[in-house]
From TrEMBL, chain A:
Transmembrane segments: none annotated. This is Alpha-ketoacid dehydrogenase subunit beta. It comes from the Bacteria. The keyword Ion transport does not apply. It comes from Nonomuraea phyllanthi. CDD domains: TPP_PYR_E1-PDHc-beta_like. GO terms for molecular function: magnesium ion binding; oxidoreductase activity. The lineage of its organism: Bacteria, Bacillati, Actinomycetota, Actinomycetes, Streptosporangiales. Keywords: Oxidoreductase, Thiamine pyrophosphate. Its cofactor is thiamine diphosphate.
């Protein structure tokens, strides 16, 4: 077992992928000598060279657009978008090209491109550095969208994403980069499939559905709720597209109450998709409507207000209370 | 302000914007069919080579005319005609080797021809039976790209792959004058430059981006943009197949031998509408088209062959007959293209199994089944 932070787990995962397959490339702004602004690619250029760990010009559309070209030539590029709010210049290449080109080619083309995106708030950053843009991409057919919440998943999921022959948008919870855990890097038999959801805390009264940075918040809320005598189940979705419906629906049927928690604004957020699907599939098992906790329907606020904007333990518990009010 | 005259050359450039001499245009064959020399771009063509170029020009024009007719008859939803741009496409397309890779827009029917793509496969996306009907790897000819300029970045990335493979090959990417205003095209120039990528940027300046004339896109001749990015730019007579072949061949060789990118501006004219849905009479005068007709890319080759007694009437008749045959064959096979099946909607969205695709396909199949009972 090795103790790794989430960022180091990603680093080790990418290192492993690069050792396993010479076609794997890293590309992005400052990913080389600096090792990325969060040091997630630290040391990789030194060990794999500038041809495989590419410091790119400062242009996100260029990063994804040239990654597509490299993939057409047989490479497996892993792109780093420096911050969530900077993915929008690349949105055209992601949505109109990366997601659609394989279908356009009737299957002749595969684009094994991973787009890594540090996401979410809670680090006191300036505007455009704290966003949660996942729903734009779950809405785009042709992409796989995943989010790790802990070091072990970071380590396995990044390797699985790189190995996928489909494009993967990989959201990393930046405020959890420094969380540490013991990881068995010597075996793979414990790895769950990339698109499997996980019950990370079993419970019987209510289900919390979360992914990325909110999983830890939900686990803390579940511990607090236990003191009030409520048994809270927490499901880490891990994958948003495709969604592991079996795990989600099984939990919803068992507890009868579901609260979805994400940092992104509630309005048209991924929680809306979950609420609709659960209502459709589990209608007669539900004791209350599926409730959603998330960011407000505003732009992300200045950092001195973010503690009010971001769902926290109390906001989650408030929603749990409401779920029992029906 | 700069003004592009319908006659071809750039006329005036305001010196206060830093541009200097009027642009040079590489030309090896005049509109009258006279062979002219150029110190940097010579080409040695046998009579057989010239006849072969002529044949390609005529055949792709025929493919295009047939597609225009198929659209008029309701067999294609839309068509983007290459009329007037045959020399730019055949000249540059014939400069490619098998190992080179080409990235087209949606108008490169002539380049597709040079890459061996069956013309009927070009019709699929315009007929609405698919979004792209050929295997790019089979022809080293990428799929048509509809969003303007996106493919320039794909081409540069591909060229970076060639570098990493240490291969002797180059990439060529096609785009138009309007595309030069796109961010992606400018990013691709930067990428190609700093990575010294083996790529040729082939801009067909056909003077019009739908209804917008060149001066809405630029205040300097387009080929001069290259110098700001740090690589050579050259303007070639885009209606001169000899010059397009010579200039592209040299730029590709430079790319293959580590000398980095070149921007070629093929100065040409879109003689037809932007697409079959467009009406150019709303925004340009008929006299402009008449002036460009005098510089037709095919007529000058025909004049050259005649004057130099490199082809006789029997040859021209045979090419015309071949063109008629090609057109009839294209029409027949277009009409025979099968419509896709409803459940094909779900095919190829993902390469690996995807639960949502399986779910929706099954639901839709069951729904369709309901009508069968």
């Amino acid at each position: 077992m090795t103790v790794l932070s989430l960022s180091k787990a990603l680093n080790e995962g990418m290192r492993k992928a690069m050792e396993d397959d010479p076609k794997v490339l890293i590309m992005g702004e400052d990913v080389g000598k600096l090792g990325g602004v969060f040091r997630v690619t630290d040391g990789l250029q030194k060990d794999f060279g500038e041809d495989r760990v590419i410091d790119t010009p400062l242009a996100e559309s260029g990063i994804v657009g040239t990654a597509i070209g490299l993939a057409l030539r047989g490479y497996r590029p892993v792109c780093e978008i420096q911050f969530d709010g900077f993915i929008f210049p690349a949105a055209d290449q992601i949505i109109t090209q990366l997601a659609k080109m394989p279908m356009r080619s009737l299957g002749a083309i595969k684009l094994p491109v991973v787009v890594r995106v540090p996401c979410g708030g809670g680090i006191g950053a300036v505007e455009h550095h704290s966003e949660s843009p996942e729903a734009y991409f779950t809405h785009t057919a042709g992409l796989r969208v995943v989010s790790c919440s802990n070091p072990a998943d970071a380590y396995t999921m990044i390797q699985q994403a790189i190995r996928s022959d489909d494009p993967v948008i990989f959201f990393e919870p930046k405020r959890r980069y420094w969380e540490k855990a013991d990881i068995d890097t010597s075996a793979t038999d414990w790895w769950p499939p990339l698109h499997a959801a996980k019950v990370v805390r079993p419970g019987t009264d209510v289900t919390l559905l979360a992914y990325g940075p909110m999983v830890k918040t939900c686990l803390e809320a579940a511990t607090a709720a236990e003191e009030d005598g409520r048994s809270v189940e927490v499901v880490d979705l891990r994958s948003l597209n495709p969604l592991d419906e079996a795990v989600v629906m099984d939990s919803a049927r068992r507890t009868g109450r579901v609260v979805v928690v994400h940092e992104a604004p509630v309005n048209s957020g991924f929680g809306a998709e979950l609420a609709a699907r659960i209502t459709e599939r589990c209608f007669y098992h539900l004791e209350s409507p599926v409730l959603r906790v998330g960011g407000f329907s505003t732009p992300y606020p200045p950092s001195r207000l973010e503690e009010h904007y971001l769902p926290d333990l109390d906001r989650v518990l408030d929603a749990v209370d409401r779920a029992f009010g029906y | 302000m700069c003004h592009e005259a319908a006659e071809g050359g750039l006329v005036t450039v305001d010196a206060s914007h830093g541009a200097d001499a009027p642009p040079e245009l590489v030309q090896l064959l005049t509109p009258e069919g006279e062979r002219v020399e150029h110190p940097d771009y010579d080409i040695d063509l046998t009579p057989e080579d010239v006849r072969s170029l002529y044949r390609d020009l005529v055949l792709v024009r025929r493919v295009d005319l047939e597609a225009v007719a198929l659209q008029r008859h309701g067999e294609l939803g839309i068509w983007a005609s290459l009329l007037g741009q045959e020399a730019a496409q055949i000249g540059s397309g014939r400069a490619l080797t098998d190992a080179d890779m080409a990235f087209p827009t949606y108008r490169e029917h002539g380049v597709a021809w040079c890459r061996g793509v069956d013309p009927v496969k070009l019709l699929g996306l315009f007929r609405g039976v698919n979004h792209g009907g050929w295997d790019p790897k089979e022809h080293n000819f990428h799929l048509y790209t509809i969003v303007i300029g996106s493919q320039t970045l794909h081409a540069v990335g591909y060229a970076m792959g060639i570098q990493r493979d240490d291969a002797s090959a180059a990439t060529i990417v096609y785009f138009g004058d309007g595309a030069t205003s796109q961010g992606d095209v400018n990013e691709s120039f930067i990428w190609a430059s700093v990575f010294n990528a083996p790529i040729v940027f082939f801009c067909q300046n056909n003077q019009w981006a739908i209804s917008e004339p060149l001066e809405k896109q630029t205040r300097i001749p387009l080929y001069r943009r290259a110098s700001g990015f740090g690589f050579p730019g050259i303007r070639v007579d885009g209606n001169d197949v000899f010059a397009c072949l010579a200039v592209t061949r040299k730029a590709l060789e430079a790319a293959r031998t580590g000398q980095g990118p070149t921007l070629i501006e093929a100065f040409t004219y879109r003689m037809g509408a932007h697409t079959s849905a467009d009406d150019p009479t709303r925004y340009r005068v008929a006299s402009e088209l008449e002036a460009w007709k005098l510089k037709d890319p095919i007529e000058r080759v025909k004049s050259y062959l005649f004057k130099n007694e490199q082809a006789d009437q029997a040859f021209f008749d045979a090419v015309d007959a071949e063109a008629d045959q090609l057109g009839a064959d294209l029409r027949r096979r277009c009409l025979a293209m099968p419509d896709p099946e409803p459940l094909d909607i779900f095919d190829h969205v993902y390469r690996e199994p995807h639960a949502l695709m399986d779910q929706e396909r099954a639901q839709f199949a069951a729904y369709l089944e309901g009508f069968a009972q």
